[in-house]
Amino acid sequence: MRPVNLIPPDERGTDRGAMRTGAVSYVLIAALGLALLGVIALAFTSKQISDRKSEVTKLQAQEQQAKAKADSLQAFANFRAVQEQRSSTVTSLAQSRFDWQRVMNELARVIPSNVWLVQLSGTVSPTVSVQDAPDIETRGEIQGPALEIVGCAPNLDAVAGFVSSLEEIDGVTRVGVQQAQRPDITAGAAAAAPASDSSQATSTECDTKAFIYKFNIVAAFDAVPTPSAATTDSSVPSSLATTAPSAQAASTSTPTASTGG
Question: 115-133, pLDDT tens digit by residue?
Answer without folding.
Answer: 999 999 888 888 888 788 8
